[in-house]
């Protein structure tokens, strides 16, 4: 017997209905992008803002939205697009097994490559600076992974600890003349102290409420740095921040410098290479400490609290100290990274510590795979390298980057590396699926 249902209900919509849906979608896109794409405020010759129009770009964007919405409605209707039908069922299983087996070799390979970067690209200052930036965000990602991936606490204000570490080093170094090696642990301790201060008000919060409070904390720190001009310099920031030395040997041209002591010809690249190995050492220290903490009772308490806080309490685990230690240790690593950022730049200002930085580090942790150290490193390399690849297409790189993130979250919703080894195991070690790594909600 033939089905009496119309064809539009079996697959897509009719052409007329698809055109209506596409027109409505295009109208919404026009309203959203009219002020973002169609109009642009630019500074004129006299210093005043002038409004310029970009109607062709707006028309192309709306037309693309209309075409995409029409094709979707015509073939799939208003239901969700079944992406699993585009790939064979065995592809996902084989992909998961491949990731699990290859991940054992990716980590050592990345470490060896990182050690050889200054040797291979000694004459390429751009690659060295990019490597330093990637390693800085790897360290930040590993620090935030303690809070989100292990303890399951959604933190949207992680940039606050990054800022505390940077300003702590800058103020101590410029005011009291302390060296980088003395200020580095002090910056980490001060950032951990502020992590504890943040932890106390959010002890009873979870999910969206926790995210809102941590986001507010990050903005409060930025506004304090911006308005407390007598202490932080306000919007002018802090300049002439001392550079680190190699056991007291400065990277300058003259007697008693690094080059003169070792009989080398002076080159500004020496300092860049030293900074590269310095942030690599700090990042590896963060990784080793994090892996060690995961195997200690406090690490197992973090994972238990991430899975079920009520069950964690019923087992006699003090969730108060567990949360505070997660915030403090994660903040400490952020403080170390901030201290390095300050000594590398030589100048800091509140503009360097906006919410965008927190969002970028959070995206690295989520896309890499919460709870996965290797995933965070791979995500930082892919994301920041992707930013640089599309630098020439500045107007469109964020669009392409956002589209790529959507595809990754559809294909690998638990992150690029969605498996991790358990902290404890019986008789044999087994990989844990990424679905077990979640944030409290």
Unreliable spans are 1-10, 437-441
Give the CA-based shape.
Answer: globular
CATH topology of the largest domain: ABC transporter involved in vitamin B12 uptake, BtuC
CATH class of the largest domain: Mainly Alpha
* Largest sheet strand order: 1-2
Count of separate DSSP helical elements: 17
Largest sheet: 2 strands, antiparallel
Q: Separation of termini?
A: 49 Å
Helix and strand element order: HHEEHHHHHHHHHHHHHHH
Helix percent reads 55-70%
Name given to the CATH architecture of the largest domain: Orthogonal Bundle
Give the number of DSSP strands: 2
**Which band does the percent of strand residues land in?**
under 5%
Instruction: Please give the radius of gyration in angstroms.
Output: 25 Å
By helix and strand content, what is the structural category? mainly alpha
Number of domains: 2
Task: Give a description of the structure.
With 441 residues, the chain is an all-alpha fold. It has two domains: 7-81, no CATH class; 103-436, Orthogonal Bundle (ABC transporter involved in vitamin B12 uptake, BtuC), CATH 1.10.3470. 67% of the residues lie in helices and 2% in strands. The protein has helices at residues 7-10, 15-38, 55-76, 89-120, 125-150, 159-176, 180-199, 207-227, 229-232, 258-261, 269-295, 297-307, 309-314, 319-345, 355-368, 373-389, 394-411, and strands at 39-43, 49-53. The protein has a two-stranded antiparallel ribbon with strand order 1-2.
């Amino acid at each position: 017997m033939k089905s009496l249902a119309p064809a539009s209900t079996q697959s897509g919509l009719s052409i007329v209905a698809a055109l209506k849906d596409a027109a409505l979608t295009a109208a919404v896109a026009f309203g959203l992008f009219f002020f973002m794409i169609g109009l642009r405020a630019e500074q004129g010759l006299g210093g005043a803002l002038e409004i310029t129009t970009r109607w062709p770009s707006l028309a192309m964007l709306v037309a693309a939205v209309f075409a995409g919405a029409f094709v979707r409605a015509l073939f799939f209707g208003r239901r969700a697009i079944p992406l699993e039908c585009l790939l064979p069922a065995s592809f996902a299983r084989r992909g998961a097994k491949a990731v699990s087996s290859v991940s054992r070799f990716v980590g050592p390979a990345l470490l060896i490559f990182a050690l050889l970067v200054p040797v291979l690209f000694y004459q390429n200052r751009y690659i060295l600076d990019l490597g330093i930036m990637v390693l800085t965000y790897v360290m930040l990602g590993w620090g935030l992974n303690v809070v989100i991936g292990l303890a399951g606490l959604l933190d949207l204000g992680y940039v606050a600890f990054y800022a505390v570490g940077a300003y702590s080093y800058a103020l101590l170094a410029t005011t009291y003349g302390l060296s980088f090696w003395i200020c580095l642990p002090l910056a980490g301790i001060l950032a951990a102290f502020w992590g504890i201060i943040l932890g106390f008000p959010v002890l009873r919060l979870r999910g969206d409420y926790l995210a809102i409070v941590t986001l507010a904390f990050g903005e409060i720190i930025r506004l304090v740095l911006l308005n407390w001009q007598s202490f932080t310099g306000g919007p002018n920031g802090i300049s002439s921040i001392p550079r680190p030395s190699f056991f007291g040997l400065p990277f300058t041209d003259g007697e008693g410098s690094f080059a003169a002591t070792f009989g080398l010809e002076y080159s500004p690249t020496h300092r860049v290479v030293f900074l590269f190995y310095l942030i690599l050492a700090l990042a590896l220290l963060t990784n080793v400490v994090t892996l060690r903490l995961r195997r200690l009772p406090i690490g197992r308490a973090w994972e238990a609290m991430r899975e079920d806080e009520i069950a964690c309490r019923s087992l006699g685990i003090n969730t108060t100290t567990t949360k505070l230690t997660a915030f403090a240790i994660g903040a400490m690593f952020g403080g170390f990274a901030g201290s390095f950022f300050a000594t590398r730049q030589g100048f800091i200002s509140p503009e360097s510590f906006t919410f965008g930085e927190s969002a970028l580090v959070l995206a690295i942790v989520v896309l890499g795979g919460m709870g996965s150290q290797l995933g965070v490193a791979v995500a930082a390399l892919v994301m920041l390298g992707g930013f640089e690849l599309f630098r020439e297409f500045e107007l469109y790189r964020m669009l392409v980057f956002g589209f790529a993130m959507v595809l990754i979250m559809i294909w690998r919703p638990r992150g690029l590396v969605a498996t991790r080894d358990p902290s404890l195991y019986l008789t044999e070690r087994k990989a844990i699926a990424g679905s077990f790594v979640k944030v409290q909600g």
